[in-house]
Amino acid sequence: MVKHDVKDIGLAGQGKLRIEWAEMEMPVLRSIKEQFSKGKPLKGMRMAACLHVTTETANLMETLKAGGAEVALCASNPLSTQDDVAASLVKNSDIPVFAIKGEDNDTYYKHIMDLLSFAPHLTMDDGADVVSVLHKERQDLLSNVIAGTEETTTGVIRLRAMAEKGVLRYPIIAVNDALTKHLFDNRYGTGQSTMDGILRATNRLIAGAVFVVCGYGWCGRGVAMRARGMGARVVVTEINPLKALEATMDGYDVMPVMDAAKIGNIFVTVTGNINVISEKCFGVMNDGAIVCNSGHFNAEIELKALTEMAVGRREIRPFVEEFTLPNKRRIYVLGEGRLINLASAEGHPSSVMDMSFANQALCSAYAVTKHEGLKNTVYSVPEEIDREIAKLKLKSMGIKIDKLTKAQSDYLKSWEMGT
């Protein structure tokens, strides 16, 4: 059996069935897998993937393997692993996996080092931790790496900072920036799965609650949309005046986070920054306030400060931790402040991850053929890949669209023709 560190290999049968269930709703990735099986565009490539170990990710790994790659996988978040899926990938697909749901911080980074021991040619990241560890601790392996991809807003922010400082040693394609990723995955995927995670963890009624969304990027838009659809009064906090104006025009209350802290019942952070909900916020929150995060890292909530403030702490439900403050008010943190849609739920629906992972697969193949002409910086997904994925998705849904006539095409290219 391939190298691995998973919770229980005996869960492989259950995981295989769930992987098949997800695959049914991933027609774009399925068609790419068929192409890859014939053309083998990744032949000879060792790929190190640090992603959420879910049923959808399993289908991506099998697609990459079909394309000829030697793939290894570790978790990009300590609480996002689906243990049965990890077991199935090892036993049924012969893919090395290093991931256990609930692993501590030391194990998390040990698993990244296990992943890097395969000396990858390509990296596939969800938060840029593999790239960071490579550059800090395994620089000896950098000469092997020809390119990488990054899935998240948070990761792209980190990688662009590296590129601007001139320390990034190989090109990265920002899959997150693809329109077929962030317009759908971030908005519809995060919106639905975040609400799913909150409901599974708390079983609280959303209707009538004051629901605070910190950040109005595509993820924030999705969460706000779904919360309003369930009857909440939605409040948005922002630092960007354009996004704040957009949220206002979309019909939400917009205010500073300290003002929202005084009235909110449920808080969700989706910013990619640190200490968005801070010690000061905890000091004014109502008794019973629920705090969670759907940004990549739990640093969005100042958990250390809350822990130091608390005079009592206990787990009152799975994925729900109660912090009692000196004034007897109780604050509830969901899923240790980590991605609540993966901590207590199953992450994004397969049909939306279909497009995101199609981008990962096609961008990996693109990187193999084009890497010699790329600089050590962060690139957007080529427009032709974005459009091809959109076309494949529409085709799978049985939707047809119009094409330009020759006259229309000529008109768009001309400047002589006016009104």
TrEMBL record:
Keyword Cytoplasm: yes
Cofactor(s) required for function per UniProt: NAD(+)
Binding positions (NAD(+)): 152-154, 186, 215-220, 238, 273, 294-296, 341
SMART domains in UniProt: AdoHcyase, AdoHcyase_NAD
Chief place of localization: cytoplasm
Residues noted as binding substrate in the record, renumbered to the chain: T54, D126, E151, K181, D185
Subcellular localization(s) per the UniProt record: Cytoplasm
Reaction equation(s) it catalyzes: S-adenosyl-L-homocysteine + H2O = L-homocysteine + adenosine
Gene3D superfamilies (alphabetical): Adenosylhomocysteinase-like, NAD(P)-binding Rossmann-like Domain
Cofactor note: Binds 1 NAD(+) per subunit.
Top-tier EC class: hydrolase
GO terms of molecular function: hydrolase activity
Protein keywords: Cytoplasm, Hydrolase, NAD, One-carbon metabolism
Transmembrane segments: none
Functional pathway: Amino-acid biosynthesis; L-homocysteine biosynthesis; L-homocysteine from S-adenosyl-L-homocysteine: step 1/1
Entry annotated with the keyword NAD: yes
InterPro entries the record matches: Adenosylhomocyst_ase-like_sf, Adenosylhomocysteinase-like, Ado_hCys_hydrolase_NAD-bd, NAD(P)-bd_dom_sf, S-Ado-L-homoCys_hydrolase_CS
EC number(s) reported in the record: 3.13.2.1
S-adenosyl-L-homocysteine hydrolase NAD binding domain: residues covered: 186-347
Family matches, as PANTHER family: ADENOSYLHOMOCYSTEINASE (PTHR23420:SF0)
UniProt-listed HAMAP family: AdoHcyase (MF_00563)
Homology family: Belongs to the adenosylhomocysteinase family.
Task of the protein: May play a key role in the regulation of the intracellular concentration of adenosylhomocysteine.
Protein name from the UniProt record: Adenosylhomocysteinase
Organism: Candidatus Magnetominusculus xianensis
Taxonomy of the source species: Bacteria, Pseudomonadati, Nitrospirota, Nitrospiria, Nitrospirales
